Amino acid sequence: MLENRKLGASEIKIAPLILGTNVFGWTTDEAMAFKLLDYFTEQGFNAIDTADVYSKWVDGHVGGESELAIGKWLKQSGKRDKVVLATKLGAELAPDKKGLSKKYIISAAEASLKRLNTDYIDLYQSHYDDSETPIEETLAAYDSLIKAGKIRIIGASNFTPERLEESLQVSRDNNLPIYQTFQPEYNLYDRADFEENIRPITSANNLSVISYFSLASGFLTGKYRSLDDIKDSKRAGFVEKYFTDRGFNILNALDNVAARHETTAGSIALAWVIQQPGITAPIASATNIDQLADLIKATTITLDHEDITLLATASSL
């Protein structure tokens, strides 16, 4: 039985794994996206994370491709009331389509709602900070969307610790909506920033943490162990930075723990994130059903003290 976890102080509950959809319209076509969404929800999971900018980085794409695929699936499946839908705004779609101004937030929300084939977004997130827009203006825009029933709660991603704390204080001082979730990069390799700088803030303020790059762009699955392994991969630019002595020490430790649990390195890496203090759910993406089944397996694994110690030693800075 999956243990659902609350998002911040809201009434929204999610299972301890979020399906990342940045691959939709990139390395995953629409037919496979539908299969992944069906399988994920059939296994009892409910949270889907996307962003308006997915997958603008692909040649010929403009952004919105992931949201469009999800929207088609929602319409076809009739499962809107079964899922917690999270999307993000603020990344640059065009020179005049970026940031967190009130005018842009309102228009970006309408565009996402249309692509997603829904009249509300459960979790609407500031994808990146916008230092040029007053925090009060950003939060007031979210306030109007919440009052209009178009979004339920808000979250932030990629803020510095200082700006996150400042945003939370502005919410309290002005009786404006407050961020309920925070989305940082966090995995066995990329640990220090979250553990040292972010977690003290999220824990003190009851923010749910939903981590991205939870498998280090696939490196922690163990499928990329040499430059030859990534030469034809679309993720090569993301993965190469992990090819260090420390990176390979982590893979060796994951292999050892995976053998003990008769599973894969990827499911152990994800189980480690799930069991870290202050983490609500990691976000992870898959491009086929076997990969997704492996990710889901992570929610059933309990790492013991020996496992945790082995992984901690390998990944220590």
Automatic annotation (TrEMBL):
MF (Gene Ontology): oxidoreductase activity
Matches recorded under Pfam families: Aldo_ket_red
GO CC entries: cytosol
Record-annotated NADP-dependent oxidoreductase domain positions: 16-311
Keyword entries, A-Z: Oxidoreductase
PANTHER family linked: NADH-SPECIFIC METHYLGLYOXAL REDUCTASE-RELATED (PTHR43364), OXIDOREDUCTASE-RELATED (PTHR43364:SF6)
Name of the protein described by the UniProt record: Aldo/keto reductase
